[in-house]
Amino acid sequence: MISKIFLFPFFLLLQLQGFILTESRSTDATDFVLDELGNLYLIHDTYVERINAVGGNLFRTSELNNGNIEYLDVTNPLKPFIHYRSQGKLIIFDNTLSEQGQVDLFEMGYGQIELVCGSRGDAYWLWDSRNSEMIRVDQNFNRIAATGNISVLTGMQIEPAQIVERGSQLYLRDEKNGIVIFDIYGSYRTTLKVLGTSDIQVYSDEVIYHDAESLHVIGKDLLSEQILTLPVKSAQHVHYFNQHLYTLSEGFLKTWKPQESGRN
C-alpha cells in the first residue's frame, strides 16, 4: 500500500459544517499523494504524473518497466522516489519527475528491506524485516542510526504496513498493534492503539487517518480525537491540504472546499 502524507490544520475541525465540491476529474490513477508544497501526484500502474500546486504545470515520468508502482515517497518534494520492494530498488527523481538515478538495496548490503521512507537531510529509513528493526541511512546508504529489534523492545510482533517520518518523530503503522512512535534517533516513545486503519498522515505531531465514513485527528497529546464526516462514502484514498479535501473513488478525483460555520 502506498504511503501518503497530508496536512490538516487542527483548528478547522472546530469550525467546519461540511464540504462543497469544487472540482471533479475522471482518472485511471490508482492512487495519489500530495507533498508539503501542495503538488499533486497521480499514481498510475507504471507511471506518475505531477500537477504543480502553482501554475498547474504537468510533469510525468517516463513509462517505467519495473512492474506496478508499489510506493511513492514525496517527503522531499525536490527528490521523490519510488520503491520497488520485490526488486529491492529505488528510482529517484527530481521535481520535474526526471529520473536522476537508481539504487540497488541488495548491492548496498540491505537484503531484507520491506519498507523505505524519506528522512530529513536526504536520508532514508529502512525497515529490516529479518532483524525487526528500523535503520536510518544517509544519502550514500551508510548506517547512521537504528531502533534495535522492535519486537523485543515493545514485546509485540511488529510487521509495519507503513513507515513515515515527520517533524522529529518516526511512525510505524502496524495493523494488529497500532502506531509505534520513535524519535529521530530511533529511541522508542509510545504506541497508539489505533488498529486496522488506512495509511496515516502526520502534521504538527497530530496523527490523521480515515475509515469508510470519517476523518480522524488524534491531537498532539496523543489522547484527544476529533472526527469529521467525509462527503464521499467509502472513498479509496483521502487527503486534506491547505483547506481542501481530495478524494479518489470510482475513477474520479474530487476536490472539496470546507464549508465553515461562520463563527468568529
Write a compact overview of the structure shown:
The chain is mainly β and 264 residues long. 2% of the residues lie in helices and 48% in strands.
Number of domains: 1
Relative strand content: over 45%
Report, as a whole number of angstroms, the end-to-end distance: 41 Å
Tally the helices: what do you get? Answer: 1
Overall mean pLDDT stands at 88
Strand order of the largest sheet: 1-24-23-22
Annotated CATH homologous superfamily: TolB, C-terminal domain
Structural class designation = mainly beta
Named CATH topology: Neuraminidase
If you compute it from the alpha carbons, what radius of gyration comes out, rounded to the nearest whole angstrom?
18 Å
Architecture (CATH level 2) name:
6 Propeller
CATH class: Mainly Beta
- Strand segment count: 24
Protein described:
Strand 16 and strand 17 form a beta hairpin. This protein has one helix and 24 strands. Mean pLDDT is 88; it is low at 1-16. The chain is mostly beta strands. It has one helix at 150-154, and strands at residues 16-26, 31-34, 40-43, 48-51, 58-60, 71-73, 81-84, 89-93, 99-104, 113-119, 123-128, 133-137, 143-146, 162-166, 169-174, 178-183, 188-192, 201-203, 206-210, 214-218, 225-229, 237-241, 244-249, 252-260. The strands form six sheets. A four-stranded antiparallel sheet has the order 1-24-23-22, with no helix packed on it. The protein has a single domain, classed as Neuraminidase. The N and C termini lie far apart (41 Å).
